[in-house]
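Students often ask why we bother encoding 3D structure as a string. The short answer is that it lets us treat folding as translation between two languages. Here is a chain of 180 residues written in the first language.
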Amino acid sequence: MAAWKLFYEQGYDDTTIEEIIEESGTSKGSFYHYFTGKDSLLSSLSYMFDEKYEELMENMDEGMHSFEKLMYLNRELFRMIENKIPMDLLAKLYSSQLITKGEKHLLDHNRIYYKLLKRIFSEGQERGEIVKDPSVNELVRVYALCERALLYDWCLSNGDYSLSRYAADMFPIFLGKFKN
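And here it is in the second language, the structure alphabet:
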């Protein structure tokens, strides 16, 4: 969390590895044991998103319609991104995922994000709240694609509109045909 604090306060480009090490109270060896550099640390931002999803799931009403659960998760995550994640950091994360030759954290289907979405879509299909065709995996893929598109556009637009409000309007349009 020390790195994210510094990135938020100083910006990604103006934060050095030495400052991250000092702020976190770790050693240089320990830092490089876990990360090859700032870019690999940046990739772990997706895990911060997963922590937010875990928190949201604990507070979510299990009786809520599956489609509404998806809208709630999106709205709250985007609200967090809008208020706590510097746009340059988000843009760097997306651009780094485009050029990385290693693991692409945003596409890692072992993340809580993907597991949670699969659970909600499966539950929705079982309850008859979500259409049965396409498959759960395809529904998850479309959902993630729509989120990435909204985030990408928001970054391209330099945040000149409210991400959470725009998503609240657009997400039901993008995913409405999957709701029963």
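Translate back mentally: The radius of gyration is 18 Å. Keep this in mind for the problem set.
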